[in-house]
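Chain and conformation:
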Amino acid sequence: MKKRYWRCFVCNDIHYGVAPPELCPTCKVLNAYVEISAEEARRFLEPSAAAPAPPDFRTAIESFAAGQVFQVNPDREKVDLLLKGIAENESNHGLKFCPCRLRTKDWAEDQRLVCPCNFTIHETYKGVADGECWCGLFVRRK
């Protein structure tokens, strides 16, 4: 069994293991981990690390959304455009920052903008029947 890196989308906790923990030990949120590359984990742990080529993020977010109360937006054209913006942000800034939100240049604050962000607490998702994340990459399952 091969160990992999996982990032909690709520608090950015990094986990290295065969599978992600069901409950994040830092923020106590259930099923909050998305698989990331070793390079991305290193960039979270060492902010000045150089950004190599991104892995297949579409596969990672589809796996992340499987079994959740949300899903990847079924509008493939919109998702492709968003993934392009995320890849450009990773290339330009070292992490997969949301293409729809402005960075503050404050490292701790900007970590909240890494995709997937903690969108389930935002007004665009929480308590909204057709809720979605800020950019629409994730939408509530119907």
